[in-house]
Amino acid sequence: MSVNLRIPGPTPCPDDVLQAMSRQMINHRGPEFADMLNRITASLQKLFQTKSDVLTLTSAGTGAIESAVVNTLSAGDRALCVSIGVFGDRFADIARTYGVEVDKVDFELGTAADPQAVADALKKGGSYKAVMVTHNETSTGVTNDLGAIAKAIRSVRPDILILVDAISSLGSVPLPIDEWDLDVVFTGSQKGWMVPPGMSMVSVSKRAWDAIEQARIPRYYFDYKKARSFLEKGQTPWTPAVSVYFAMDVALQKLEAEGLASIHERHARLGQFTRDGVKALGLKLLAKDERYASNTVTAVWVPEGVEGSALTKMMRTEYNTVLAGGQGTLTGKIFRIGHLGLVSQADLQACLDALKLALPRVGFSPSGVGATA
User: Considering the entire predicted model, what is its pTM?
Assistant: First the structure.
């Protein structure tokens, strides 16, 4: 029996995407790679819904977060970080590592950021250079209303940089970058793009390029100016993960053929299916308001009296279903079901069926006390 990988990344990949990775290496300074890179870049611009530059980096998503910080900010700059979970906190931690003075506006785990509260923090804070925000918080299964947040930010500071962690949202849920006037937006290959880990992709606005000219944090590997300069020649500054580019080339053709509207509808439908199925089992979602529940990952409270690690272990070893656990202060308190990228309703039904069998075996009865909160 094949494993039902239900974590929010790395996600399963289509067979033809994986097969593309078995190709022999090519010269990453030659015309064949240049043609592929140009195809990938043009396709990403369409799927990002942007006319801005889109750059590709060989890195995991955390490298993309770091790249956004080091290219646009300087030590001593002030930034406001909107955090609703672990990855919002990570954004702030990375910026602080490079000497950026970060103020955080935190929201209760399981809730989305309040756009007015973000605007109020901007008004009170004064001379911020950037706002850093996570679109989809993978650790809590909550999606921020980024369009409303961006509008609120622009109402206070039309000139400020908006840096967006869209690692687990872009390519799966609506995120019209130009329409929402966002400056640096990044994602990772291992999420909704259905490609193994190893590539991060980032869009850079005109406002961001102006900031890059002034930014003084030292950077070498993650240098957007070098990346753009080499892209003009159909290259990357450093040796890319060529096999991952092969895979991305194939995956993007599949995604373009499906179309953005269909991609977004599919994720919305599967997200709702998962939430309905979880609640039917007598479990409770971490997301306090389902309007903001993520369509790429569902976070579920571990029921009272159940050991979270025992549940995820049983699911893995006896039901061939791999769930994600909680992170940070939610470790052992929640489990998460990924439903982005290559996933079908049958995959999710199999996961729910396995949960229905496993839960009583680890001490949960839906007629009991219920879920902790």
Answer: 0.97
The span from the CA of 33 to the CA of 23, in Å, is 13
Q: What are the beta bridge partners of residue 322? A: 5
| Domain ranges, ordered by start, for the chain | 4-9+259-361, 15-257
Tell me the pLDDT of the chain averaged across its residues: 97
* Cβ neighbours for 331, distance < 8 A, ≥ 6 positions apart: 308, 325
Q: By percentage, how much of the chain surpasses pLDDT 70?
A: 98
Cα–Cα distance for residue pair 236/240, rounded to 1 Å? 7
Residue with tokens 């929640």: 334
Banded model confidence at residue 366, pLDDT cuts 50, 70, 90: confident
Tokens linked to 249: 């080339």
Burial of 117 (C-beta count, 10 Å sphere; 0-12/13-18/19+): middle
Lowest-confidence segment of 59-63, 122-126, 205-209, 262-266 by average pLDDT: 122-126
**Residue 85 and residue 139 in contact, taking contact as beta carbons nearer than 8 Å:** yes
Print burial letters for 15-24: b (CB count within 10 Å at least 16), e (below 16): eebbebbeee
Question: Which residue from 297, 336, 330 is spatially nearest to 86, judged by alpha carbons?
Answer: 330
β-strands 334-338, 321-325 pairing: antiparallel
Decide if pLDDT at 62 tops 90: yes
pLDDT tops 50 at residue 372: no
Q: Dihedral through CA 95, CA 96, CA 102, CA 106, nearest 10? A: 80
- CATH architecture group of domain 4-9+259-361: Alpha-Beta Complex (3.90)
Distances (CA, A) of 266 to 34, 171, 247, 248, 284: 32, 12, 22, 20, 23
Task: Count the neighbouring beta carbons within 10 Å of the beta carbon of residue 310.
Answer: 15
CATH class of the domain comprising 15-257: alpha beta
Enumerate residues 6+ apart whose C-beta is below 8 A from 165.
Answer: 61, 64, 65, 87, 88, 91, 132, 133, 134, 135, 186
Average pLDDT over residues 290-308: 97
